Each structure stands twice: as C-alpha cells, then as structure tokens.
Amino acid sequence: MEPLSIVFEDEYLLVLDKPTGLLTVSGTSPGTDDCLESRAMAYNPEARLVHRLDWDTSGLIIFGLTAKARVHLGRQFEDRVVKKQYIARVWGHPDQSSGIVNQPLRCDWPNRPRQMIDHEKGREAITEWEVITQTETTTDLLMKPQTGRSHQLRVHCQYLGHPIIGDRMYAPDEAYHAHKRMCLHASQVEFYHPVTREWLKFTSACPF
C-alpha cells in the first residue's frame, strides 16, 4: 500500500492527492474495502470526506477533521463556492479553443453507474473548458466544472465528440486503449478555510 500523498494538513483540514485506480470510498463488492477514505481514517480517525473522485480519476480531494469543518465545507460545495479545475486528455481536436457545455445529467439506471444527458429529468450540469495543448491525435483541456454531477466531465467530453482518453465507460475502443489509465486529473481546488475563513488554493501536477 502506497503512503498517503498529503498536500495540506492542519487540525481542521486534510487535503490529499489521490492516485488513479483507488476508490474514494469502499464499495459493496468483495475486495473493495481498501479506499482513500479508509487510508485517511487510519492516518487520522477523524478524517471524513466532503466530496468524491471517480476510481479512475486522480488528484486533489478534501477531508474535514471536525464536524464543524465538514458542515462548512459541505455548504461551500452546495453553494458552488468551491472552485475546481481538472486536466483532461481527450481524443481528437475540438473545433473551438474554448467553450461551455450546459447539458443536464441523470443516471442511466439500466446501465448504472453510467450517466446520461436528459433534458427532461436531468439535473443542471455546466462545464467550462479551454484547450491547453494538442498532439497529432489528442488534446489536453483545462476543465472548470460549475456543478458537481457524477461523471460530469466524462459525459460532457463525450458530448463534445472528444471522449477522455482511457475512459472505460464513455470512450470508443481506439480512445480507450490510447493510454493505460483514464486521463482525468483534479489539478486545482480553491475554497475558504472552514475556521479561519482564509481563501485557500491547492494545486497538483498532472501525472500523464
């Protein structure tokens, strides 16, 4: 088991850098007890998640170490105060250098945990994006989700016609096999400290 990658720690907060291929919380299937939350609780029994990242996604994730801190952080997520940035490597080249995807999402229940766009029953999902760099076959995007729906960035990239490289759920075979991991990384997060009210910003270098 690799050690925790601690980005920040005080008596109220723990910010970790999650590797790809590790569950954020334990699953119901056998052999899924190991997760970032259980590792964080082994390090500090008071550590509790205030948001999640997908198994395949790497990057920054926040834990509250007191009940007061968790409530305050949770409210910041609910009120869209928290600012998050991701790096995504996608298949192909978008026609524009930047844009906004505003497509509502809901669970595709027969195929869960897959999500789908649904303009009648979906919940609001908004993502800003811009091109960072390109290769002959791929593009790196800076993505700024304004909402926090499950699989939001993955489905929105698929909607753009440029699925995330290595995405086992939403990418076609060629894009899926173009990298050994899903190329989505939570690279930056900003929020108010739950006690001091200081505006904090943390960053994580993209590993792909």
Automatic annotation (TrEMBL):
Catalytic activity reported: a uridine in RNA = a pseudouridine in RNA; uridine(32) in tRNA = pseudouridine(32) in tRNA; uridine(746) in 23S rRNA = pseudouridine(746) in 23S rRNA
Gene3D superfamilies in the cross-refs: Pseudouridine synthase
Broad EC category: isomerase
E.C. number: 5.4.99.-
GO molecular function: 23S rRNA pseudouridine(746) synthase activity; RNA binding; tRNA pseudouridine(32) synthase activity
Keyword terms of this UniProt record: Isomerase, rRNA processing, tRNA processing
NCBIfam families per UniProt: rluA_subfam (TIGR00005)
Role description: Dual specificity enzyme that catalyzes the synthesis of pseudouridine from uracil-746 in 23S ribosomal RNA and from uracil-32 in the anticodon stem and loop of transfer RNAs.
Protein name according to UniProt: Pseudouridine synthase
Organism, scientific name: Ahrensia marina
